[in-house]
Amino acid sequence: MDNMFFIKKGYKDNDTAKTYETEFVGEYWNDERIKTSSVYQYDVYKFAASLIKKKNYQIGIDLGCGPGTKGKWFLAPYLKELILIDQPNCKSFALKALPKSFFYGVDLENLSLNLENKADIIICADVIEHLSNPLPTLEFCRDSIKNNGIIIISTPERDILRGRNCFESPHASHVREWNKDELNKLLEFIGLKIIDHKLLPPKKLTILSKIIMKAFGPIGYRKEWHSCQMVICTI
Questions:
Q1: Extents of the domains making up the chain
Q2: Are strands 228-234 and 145-156 parallel, antiparallel or unpaired?
Q3: What is the pLDDT of residues 179-209, one digit of tens each?
Q4: Are the C-beta atoms of residues 144 and 83 closer than 8 Å to each other?
Q5: CA-CA distance, 224 to 222, in Å (whole number)?
Q6: DSSP string, 3-72
């Protein structure tokens, strides 16, 4: 297959996007990044929490958990078992936030974990755009979910965020970004069944933003308010 990630012809990957670090080198998780991580993908985790409570899910995986802030707020209070997976340098931050969880430090582009128990729900929020090869991470999601479980995958919606004429991400740590059709094709290629596709704010909205959206609906939309695409999948 010429285009294994289903990105449109002419799109240029960002080769400078390198975010993998071991626990011994680098300063990727600095104070500012930890602070901002608590507001990004806020609505994705909020949705996951509502689903966990509704379905009474017991085992969850936060794949690309970062420092664990949103997992502490939205996942741990409702799950019997929470598994955290991310690059090794997240370990100390994640386990500080979630000391009763299990943490696996891995290279997400070479992910080959075999967990003892499959999960009821997997959250992979804004991870795949950082990976030169997202297939191992997506295959892990497919192979680690129960037959009746749910996989939640989010990533920027390129056409909304950048415009239809974008052929390269200006975000320094994004290798590539998908539009809705491209992402759906990728997930279906992996073997996932798409249940729903939603557009959400990429980060927690202010009260004023919520008031404007409620008052004006689509007319009041800005790309910053609905440029995160969240796909709900099963196998």
A1: 40-234
A2: antiparallel
A3: 999 999 999 999 999 999 999 999 998 887 7
A4: no
A5: 5
A6: -TT-PPTT----TT------TTS--SS-HHHHHHHTTBTHHHHHHHHHHHHHHT--EEEEET-TTSHHHH
Token duo for residue 122: 């997997």
C-alpha to C-alpha distance for 125 and 194, rounded to whole angstroms: 16
**CATH superfamily label, 40-234:** Vaccinia Virus protein VP39 (3.40.50.150)
The pair of structure tokens assigned to 96 is 């500080």
- What pLDDT, on the 0 to 100 scale, is given for residue 209? 74
Q: Which residues pair with 178 in a beta bridge?
A: 157
160 within 8 A of 224, measured Cβ to Cβ: no
Q: Token pair 């994004």 is at which residue?
A: 174
Question: Which region holds residue 62: left if phi is over 0, alpha if psi is between -120 and 50, else beta?
Answer: beta
DSSP 233: E
Residue identified by tokens 């959250």 is 123
Distance CA 92, CA 54 (A): 31
Give 78-117 pLDDT, tens digit per residue: 999 999 999 998 999 999 999 999 999 999 999 989 999 9
The tokens for 211 are: 């008031």
Amino acid at 184: N
Query: What are the Cα distances from residue 165, in Å, to 75, 97, 139, 156, 159?
Result: 37, 41, 30, 15, 8
Residue with tokens 């998780």, as numbered in its chain: 29
